[in-house]
From TrEMBL:
Cell division in keyword set: yes
UniProt superkingdom: Bacteria
Compartment(s) where it occurs, according to its Swiss-Prot or TrEMBL record: Cytoplasm
GO CC list: cell division site; cell septum; cytosol
The protein's name: Cell division protein ZapA
An example Gene Ontology biological process: division septum assembly
Subunit structure: Homodimer. Interacts with FtsZ.
Length: 86
């Protein structure tokens, strides 16, 4: 069994350089990093006194909340689709 290709991409989040390693495309990795950076800026703008750790935790909580909400929406759409297929 061969190992999947792993991409090593350098990204900037909140002014700090990180090397992200993953099987996703470089474009995908850069997009995810940019969205994390954007969300951190958004949260930081509401409370400039958050330290980096608290900011990171709040960003993660927000991201997971959005993920859970999207999962619920997908489940609702799947149920509607099943009803339509009858």
């Amino acid at each position: 069994m061969s190992n999947p290709v792993r991409n090593r991409i350098e990204v900037m989040i909140r002014g700090t350089s990180y090397v992200i390693v993953g099987k996703e495309s470089p474009e995908h990795i850069r997009l995810v990093a940019a969205l994390v950076d954007e969300k951190m800026k958004e949260i930081s703008n509401h409370n400039a006194y958050l330290d980096t750790t608290r900011l990171a935790v709040l960003t993660a909580v927000n991201a997971v909340n959005e993920y859970v909400e999207l999962q619920k929406h997908v489940e609702q759409l799947e149920q509607q689709l099943k009803k339509l297929k009858g």
